[in-house]
């Protein structure tokens, strides 16, 4: 890294020290100022920043910072969901009071476009969102604007989050009929995962590599063959805010594309499809099967104004 890159990392570490000394991570003037500084520091794209190659001290700070961001994000969503449910009319008409609502609009459009491109026009009938939280904006945006006939099942381990989220959509005559909430650890959900055409995995489900891979392996085991798994990742300095998902974390899935936005949408998006079970004939017996490994090598990088796109060769060949 050059001098400016080192200064950027030092700024992030300094902000971490200040944030870690806060008495509470619930929304307040001090909390809002520090997290706004942190986000604005991490957002500018910087391909020179590779968090996986940094010293152990910075790696530890990053892991702690991701956990802190997760807690703060939960408090922020809980705070605004509580405000929204206090409106006498439909709370969904006031979503723009949430400070990052426009980011979710952009992210929802991006993810819908990715689905459309990679599913060849197929419209999913049933979608699962894992880690939906008290303010399930991705599900709401997709259901309201893009997937208007699709059923959404939201999974969260926190009963208070689901209680608020359910109340939030209850006044909407359309969304309330197409959106369901389940309070459960996704690691305890098995057979029902086969019923979903698309599964979204929230960025903060699995705070570190080991936890994230464990969840992915569980989904691979129980999702239907050919079903799509959409994940949130991070790139460059943004990886100080969210965990990274790499192609080789997705064993048993075909990675179709990875999108790295360069605007104010923080999360990268990874779209993958569960491999079908492929018979191996007489090798190992007539009932043996083989899951194709993920394709981690055939990557084509494309740059445009708003994002960096990594397209995977196997998928491009199928589309050509």
Number of helical stretches of at least 4 residues? 9
Q: Which structural class fits the helix and strand makeup?
A: alpha/beta
Order of helices and strands: HHHHEHEHHEEHEEEEEEEH
Mean pLDDT score: 88
Tell me about the largest β-sheet: 9 strands, mixed
Head-to-tail CA distance between termini: 39 Å
Number of strand elements: 11
Strand order of the largest sheet: 3-2-1-4-5-7-6-11-10
- Tell me, briefly, the overall form: globular
- Beta-strand fraction estimate: 15-25%
Question: Which segments are poorly predicted (pLDDT under 50) over 5 or more consecutive residues?
Answer: 279-306, 311-320
Portion of residues in helices? 25-40%
Radius of gyration: 20 Å
Search tags:
320 residues; 9 helices
Written account of the structure:
This protein is α/β, with parallel strands linked by helices. It is 39% helix and 18% strand. It is built from nine helices and eleven strands. Strands 3-2-1-4-5-7-6-11-10 form a nine-stranded mixed β-sheet. The chain has a two-stranded antiparallel ribbon with strand order 8-9. Strand 6 (253-261) and strand 7 (268-274) form a beta hairpin. Helix 1 packs across helix 3 (56-84), helix 3 packs across helix 6 (159-169) and helix 4 (101-118) crosses helix 5 (137-146). 36% of the residues are buried. Residues 279-306 and 311-320 have low confidence and may be disordered.
């Amino acid at each position: 890294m050059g001098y400016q890159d080192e200064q950027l990392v030092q700024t992030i570490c300094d902000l971490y020290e200040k944030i870690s000394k806060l008495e509470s991570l619930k929304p307040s003037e001090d909390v809002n100022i520090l997290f706004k500084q942190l986000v604005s520091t991490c957002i500018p794209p910087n391909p020179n920043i590779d968090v996986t190659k940094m010293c152990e001290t910075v790696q530890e700070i990053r892991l702690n910072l991701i956990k802190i961001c997760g807690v703060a994000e939960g408090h922020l969503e809980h705070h605004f969901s509580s405000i929204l449910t206090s409106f006498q009319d439909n709370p969904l008409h006031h979503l723009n009071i949430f400070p990052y609502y426009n980011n979710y609009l952009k992210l929802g459009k991006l993810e819908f476009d990715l689905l459309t491109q990679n599913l060849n026009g197929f419209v999913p009938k049933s979608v699962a969102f894992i880690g939906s939280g008290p303010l399930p904006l991705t599900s709401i945006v997709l259901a309201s604007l893009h997937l208007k006939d699709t059923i959404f099942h939201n999974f969260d381990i926190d009963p208070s989050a689901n209680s608020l989220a359910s109340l939030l959509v209850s006044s909407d005559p359309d969304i309330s009929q197409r959106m369901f909430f389940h309070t459960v650890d996704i690691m305890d959900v098995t057979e029902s995962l086969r019923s979903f055409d698309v599964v979204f995995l929230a960025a903060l489900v699995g705070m570190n590599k080991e936890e994230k891979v464990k969840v992915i392996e569980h989904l691979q085991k129980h999702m239907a063959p050919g079903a799509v798994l959409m994940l949130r990742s991070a790139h460059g300095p943004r990886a100080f805010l969210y965990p990274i998902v790499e192609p080789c974390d997705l064993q048993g899935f075909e990675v179709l594309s990875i999108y790295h936005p360069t605007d104010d949408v923080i999360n990268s998006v990874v779209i993958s499809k569960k491999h079908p079970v492929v018979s191996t004939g007489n090798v190992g017996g007539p009932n043996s099967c083989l899951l194709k490994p993920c394709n981690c090598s055939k990557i084509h990088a494309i740059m445009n104004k708003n994002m960096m796109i990594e397209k995977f060769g196997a998928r491009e060949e199928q589309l050509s």
